[in-house]
Structures are given as structure tokens and as C-alpha cells.
Amino acid sequence: MIEAGSSLAPLLIGDVGGQEPLPGTHHGTCYVCGRQTEHGWAEAPSDNFTAWSQIYRGSVMCERCRPIFKDRRFRQRSWVATTTGVQFADSEHRTLLWDTLREPPDPPFCVYVTAGGQKQGWISLGIYLSTSRERYWVGTDWTDRPVLIERAWVHDQAELIDRMRERKMPKQVLLDGQFSSGAWDRAMREEWTDDIEAVLARVGDPRWEVVVRAHP
Fold first, then answer.
1. Fewest C-beta in 10 Å: which of 22, 127, 136, 197?
2. pLDDT at 20
3. C-alpha–C-alpha distance, residues 63 and 46, integer Å
4. C-alpha span between 68 and 112 (Å, rounded)
5. Rounded-to-integer distance, Cα 37 and Cα 215, Å
């Protein structure tokens, strides 16, 4: 884990992320990135904020994290942040996450994968800045803490996921392991039941959910 103060905020503000600080009036420790600030915001981020279990111990949201929270793109979309900018996953960048997991950018960087676009899951990345291309953190909106991923492990899973997706297996089936009787019949005919067994062995592993959701 990165020490408090080494946060994702510098990657996402100013000239890099296009986010200008929003100064408040309260002193304290930022519960997102762990920074000390004289210009924080003491009130709850929103009336329906529920991500308290994911945040750093503190009393305010600092002026650097505040604009990220207010920009709905960071909640609604998956993204990758580096020292050169922030790229959001969209129809023009369908392979962004998959490419990043297999070949991460030069550190430091942050990767965020959303399943529903409703929760402020990126907040858990506040003090988990990735500083290695071989082992790195991926923030999600379905885990309380970022998921630690090894690049070699992603490459080991790639062929299995590619094969299953080429067979038109839905991502949800790869996530929950609920293969239909028809899928089993086809697998037996075509001799790929071993792949189904391999998927079942991975169901429930947070890393598996990350790579399945990231696959284009």
C-alpha cells in the first residue's frame, strides 16, 4: 500500500486531468487521499454517500479530491489515469482496460473498473497508487478495497477468456459460473469442458471479475 499523501489526486487535476481544485474552508486530513489541508470540505460528499468503508481516516475532503468527486465521469465510467492524462473507456476506446491490464503504462498510474456506474468506487484508490507495471492496483465499485493484480496472471487468463468469449459465452456466465445445460452439452460435443471447469475454479476470485469485466 502507498503511504498516505501519495494519492491519485495529482494525476487527475490541473493540466493533467483538467480538474481545478475547489477550495473549502475547513482544516483537516482528507479522507480520500490522506493529505493535510487548510481548504477542505467537512460536510458529507452527498446526501446518499455510502462509501464510508472505503475511505481513509480523516475529517474532510480536500480541495483536490473534491472536483473529482463532483465530476460524474469518474463514477459512471471506467478509466485509466497516468502522468500524461486521464482516459475514459468508451465506444472509441473499447480495449482500453484490457490493453492496460496486459501492458500497464509507466508508473505511477491508476486503473478503475466500474460494473454499474452508480457508486463512487474510485474513492478506494485514494491511497493505492500503482508504482509497478508487474503488480498494480485496480479500483472497482464492487469491492471495498482495490484489487491487487499481477500482469503475468492477466496474461495467464487471457487465452481462456478469449476462447470463452469467442464461443459467445456471456460475461455474466463467466462471473457466476451458471452454465446452462445447453452450454455443457456443446462443451462435451466440442471437447472444451476443461475450459468450463477452469472458469468454475476462478469464480469468486476478485481478480477474475476484474479481467472478465475489462475484456472487450
1. 197
2. 83
3. 15
4. 13
5. 39
Q: Which residue type does 172 have?
A: Q
Asked if residues 136 and 149 have their Cβ atoms less than 8 Å apart, the reply is yes
Beta carbons of 107 and 132 less than 8 angstroms apart: yes
pLDDT at residue number 2: 34
pTM of this prediction exceeds 0.85: yes
The pLDDT value recorded for residue 27 is 95
Tell me the three-class secondary structure of the chain, residue by residue.
Answer: CCCCCCCCHHHHCHHHHCCCCCCCCEEEEECCCCCEEEEEECCCCCCCCCCHHHCCCCCEECCCCHHHHHCCHHHHCCEEEECCEEEECCCCCCCHHHHHHHCCCCCCEEEEECCCCCCCHHHHHCCCCECCCCEEEEEECCCCCCEEEEHHHHHHHHHHHHHHHHCCCCHHHHHHCCCCHHHHHHHHHHCCHHHHHHHHHHCCCHHHHHHHHHCC
